[in-house]
Structure prediction request, 459 residues.
Amino acid sequence: MTKIRHQNIEQRTEHGKSLREQTPLSSHGEWSPAQNRPAPVSLIEEQNNGRLDWLIPVRRWRMSTSPFTFFRGSARIMAADLAGTPVSGLGVQACGDAHLANFGLYASPERQLVFDINDFDETLAGPWEWDIKRLAASFTIAARHNGLKKKECHKATRRVVKSYRKAMADFATMRTTDIWYAKLDGDTFIKTADEAGRAEQAQAIIDKAQSKDSRDALDKHAEEFDGKYRIRSEPPVLVPLRDLGDEQSGGKLLALANDAFETYQQSLADDCKRLLDRFSPVETALKVVGVGSVGTRCMIMLLEGRDHNDPLFLQIKQANRSVLEEYLSPGPYDNQGQRVVEGQRLMQTVSDIFLGWTRSDQSGKDYYWRQLRDWKGSVDVEDINADDLTYLAFVCGWTLARAHARSGDPVAIAGYLGSSDSLDDALVEFAESYADQSEKDYEAFIEEIRSGRLEAVEG
Prediction:
């Protein structure tokens, strides 16, 4: 990341402006696949090494659902493609997978809804350009997938970049602590949607999000058996460890979860440790989540507080090396779970109090922990119209800029971006070119499945 030297505002602004000489804003629009570009399907398949074999076909099926779900699972492909693109040299804590489906609503510890980035599996210090380019491309791909006209695709993509640029200019004028406290709450989410004529739709998302809590998770994921709750068996998406035989690593996973629970607690603040002491683990299950993560060891743990009507669900998610690390310096943390958690805390204004990490003594694999289904809400990207994309573009662009302003130098970045729409034009061009390539990669992936060379199983 860029270390902010204690220069005055003018010097930092001029430094940002001077970087346009070596990396013009227009250069960010130029992209074409490298001659020695790695085979995209091979990059995806290499990530299956070490995953649970019986879930790999499910991952392929989820990625094959649409061009957008393929894009969601192809962060490694895009990291390889971005590695050769121009950068200004101004660093931030990058999300690493900043597509629009990784933004959404969740509950703050103060029990208020906030809109923020919500996936940090690939976070690492890196160029701000890589995040905004992935975000811009995701809007173009989502718009195309939903049958929007080319003009509407350009409008949504342009707005997300413009929102990022203008928000960074605003953050450049703010006090440091004000940037740190800045957040987009539920009221602002509604207000922004109202300006786009989508207030009713936004309110529906909020209402649905606020219904998702541990009690709702209990109804969805558990059942009563002999007067006690246990996790439902819904293979392959939800599989209690009690159902797994040794050939599916059931015993190893159960030992891992039980042994790791105490270690995980040591990564929490003392007040949260005291809170968690009031809960007892009941049962653990494998739960398939996301698209790109399918096949990694992702579990949920049901805990009980004062009685069986006082549940808490925690998610335990395997943390591998960031896909960005193949092209950037590794992070400062030996534990990949800690990399995810610390990156999340740096980029979000408020984070889940149950965020923590652990390492399995048996396998050496790293994990991070968080609360499951705590007022989580998002827009259905697989069925989205032009108006929804318009207001989503504004809040996503603002949110990404805020996250970058917390870890980078907003004054220098704003100086580099300037007040013209040059970057907006460039990234619309980039997103168009990259969407073309991503769709070709998707077709190549589908052909591997259709031919039978790769197995895909619905789940």
The mean pLDDT is 93. Residues 214-371 form one domain. The radius of gyration is 22 Å.
